[in-house]
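User: Before I run my own analysis I want an independent prediction to cross-check against. Here's the chain; please return only the structure tokens and, at the end, one sentence I can use as a sanity check.
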Amino acid sequence: MPDDLKTASGLSGVLKQQLGEAGLSDDAVDREFMSQDIWHKGDTAEFVASPNSIEQLQATVRAAHEREISLNPRGGGYSYTKGYTPDRENVGILDMSKLAEIVEINTEDMYVTVQAGVTWAQLFEALKPHNVRTPFWGPLSGIGSTIGGGLSQNNAFFGAGKYGTTGDSVLSIAVVLADGTLVRTGTAGTQNGKPFWRHYGPDLTGLFCGDAGTLGYKAEITFRLIPLPKAEETASFEFESRDACAEAMAQMMREDIACEIFGFDPNLTKVRLARASLVSDAKALSNVIRGQGSLLKGLREGAKVALAGRGFMDKVDYSLHICVEGRSATGVKEDIQVLKQIAKGLGGKEIENSIPKIIR
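Assistant: Structure tokens:
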């Protein structure tokens, strides 16, 4: 191919034919917006390509490869670490948000397959009627961040205390390589195979977990499923020193009980609480009430949160928050008592557990 055709503008024209007007934007406002994350602004991309199928994704990547043009994959745009922002000219943004189909929910073999542009919230809500979820079930930004982006960063939060980061719940990945070839890992890569098992030969699945999108473009991800927990308990503690708070977290992790353990330092606490609004308070309270399993318990827990308000954190130095879940209320209560004793033994003082309730 002549060098004068190996340009981003030349590729843009080709992709507009392949993807249609809705699948390719060279508008200056779109390009600038899609070239920045929450914290950083990169060089402005030459175009934004938005494939809506795996076949379109392959064709886009193949065309870019032939012209030696880089494509930076972008999910929900919730990165704050330059996860996809261009660092030079002649780069295109590969917008993955239109690959947003939940491909299969299999409650017999206990797996779910989704396209990379599905959000964590979308997946959780789709699985809820089946009374299942993924072991790790999303970061704090999961209401808008995508599963493909999360797996590329191997992020952590909900469920990570017990089940590990995103990659630890993955069974298979369908990846488009730099030349447009589609590769499926695990048993999904066999002829007529189903993605029920990860370790089929070398662990190629792990190769693409936490790769920041550098080794291939994730098209589909398969997670294993677990039953939704029957009960959960939360607790919060105040510590006077960072060392005591950190030691409590470490000891709690060794018990392998909590599904989430997280802490705030004084500065972060002030920032978080200052950002919130009356509207967000009302929404959070509504979520607490609806998430308690019964109306009576929901009203009771909601009343506790409302009475505590935000003032209970005013004089807190270092705060530690935990969530325990399980098959029975009795078992969960026993488990959380173990963690409460650890906190107490290190000088922790139990405070109102509004924060883990609301976050959940």
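Sanity check: Residues 298-303 have pLDDT under 50 and may be disordered.
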